[in-house]
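Trying the structure run again after the queue cleared.
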Amino acid sequence: MTAFSPFTGGGRAGRMGIPARYNGPPNTGNGGWSAGAFAAAAGARVGGPPMEVTLRVPPPLDTELTVTGDSVLDGETLVASIKPAEGDLVPVAAVEMETAAKAAEGYPGFTRHPFPTCYVCGPDRPDGLRIFPGPLPDGRTAAPWIVGDEAGLPVLWAALDCPGGWTALRSGRTYVLGRIAVAAFGLPEPGERCVVVGEATEVAGRKAMVNSTVYGVGGGRLATARATWIATS
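Done. Tokens:
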């Protein structure tokens, strides 16, 4: 199997791959990590303008992809589209670490998880981010996140992904990420204890609109996301 670095090349054009360990569903990339890697390859940066990534097909793993302008391609197949985010990205209100830890004890994914080896929220991934978003009384989700050795932009996007999605997933219906826009204000330090919160703003038909925010030490906002999740059936 070919080993890939997250990016080769840079700026507005280059080649990259999604290493197999950054999976979401089996055999495809975690939506948040993949979108963050695509955005970074297209020029997204901490403190820069918010960027939005739309996943057109499940991101393939261990496959050479081309980032050209606003597109990510697998040969001639359009994998993702990238553009500046429009409108406001609304932060989800913060909670204390103790509240997040208590919520995580009730994480629905401990008993029923559609993708238990997900890099972000899979209980069967001891080498993953181990973010387990549990329910708050007001319908939001919250989880602690103890940052590992990796703390780059794709990891920050990944941390924003599943906590928003679980506001829909806990209904028992399976959803996957379709689109995510992120404003990143800072990166956490390895070992930092963060809190991630999510909320659903609208669930209609097969779509769930969700927001999520990562807060760092002292309650500083590190990043906020707005995402659309799509039910698989």
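Residues 153-169 form the longest helix (17 residues). Worth checking whether this holds up in the mutant runs.
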